[in-house]
Amino acid sequence: MKFSSFIHFARFGVETILFKKKSPILGTVILTDKCNLKCRHCSVNNITAVVHPYTQIRREMQQLYDMGIRILFFCGGETFLWRDGEKTLRDLVIDAKAMGFLIVNVVTNGTFPLDLPEADLILLSLDGDRERHNAVRGDTYDTIMGNIKNATSDNICFYMAINQINKDAVRDVCALARDTENVRAVSFNFHTPYPDTRELALSKEEKAACCGVIAEMMDAGAPVFDLKSAFPYLIENSFPTPCHQCVVMENGKLSTCGRCIEVPGLCGECGYFFVAEYTLLFRGNIKVIFEMLRTYLRYI
């Protein structure tokens, strides 16, 4: 991370904590909900299958930038399916950097070639070892690993949603992140139980067991892009929601925190690690503040 970016985020954090501000710093633009996969745990793919046009995406990016957002995520659906004429996902990342966003990340299922060196991080969904990943996402594991091997940059971060299918593969994914070229780290979430996927949710005891494994692997040197200091809050679902410092833009509609905010009761079962981390950070949790500083400076 550039020193100037660090200073900007530090100033934002101090002002947010001292003055209890609710201004956002992280924004996500949904490029499309079209996806080439039908994952067991996903409730937001191919609802419309509309690919939003370039002019609209640029307008939404500018709106987020004008709100003071400086961390931008591109999400789907599957982001690499986005195209408008000659414009591709890579053009959007380059545009975002030129617009002034300080960190630009992309979320993908990894089934398309990974030629995106301009992104700060490519958050690539890997949901276990071969057997359990394929049980969640279809027969894609070998394709994904081949794309990682041939990636043009080392900016890949595994992104695993832990559920009833893959809860025993956490250690495997940590080790794979440690041992795979072009992979910088792994970031975890717990499955957030949308009504049609509730059977995949973990119990409190299962969350605690998974956090124990993650912490053990972190202590052993595995590159994990999560904060141990937030684990107790994630296990108990005791962190405050929604996260006002994060917003999502989808087809012109701005939502605080995420698309799931409108599902009754779902905030109380949120499994997103970054939501816990950000809400605790901006409420002045000292342990989270110092651990986030170390983690972000290491991996971004």
The number of helices is 10
Question: How far apart are the termini?
Answer: 5 Å
**Main sheet, how many strands, which sense, barrel?**
8 strands, mixed
Give me the CATH fold name. pyruvate-formate lyase- activating enzyme
Q: Please state roughly what percent of the residues sit in beta strands, choosing from under 5%, 5-15%, 15-25%, 25-35%, 35-45% or over 45%.
A: 15-25%
- The coarse overall form would be globular
In CATH terms, the superfamily is pyruvate-formate lyase- activating enzyme
Mind explaining what this structure looks like?
This protein has 300 residues and is of the alpha/beta class. The protein has one domain: pyruvate-formate lyase- activating enzyme. It contains 10 helices and 10 strands. It has an 8-stranded mixed β-sheet with strand order 8-7-6-5-2-1-9-10, with helices on both faces. A two-stranded antiparallel ribbon has the order 3-4. A hairpin with a 2-residue loop joins strand 3 (83-84) and strand 4 (87-88). Helix 2 packs parallel to helix 3 and helix 6 (170-179) packs parallel to helix 7. The protein is globular. The N and C termini lie close together (5 Å). The mean pLDDT is 96.
Characteristics of this structure?
single chain; 300 residues; alpha/beta; pyruvate-formate lyase- activating enzyme; eight-stranded mixed sheet; two-stranded antiparallel sheet; 10 helices; 38% helix; globular
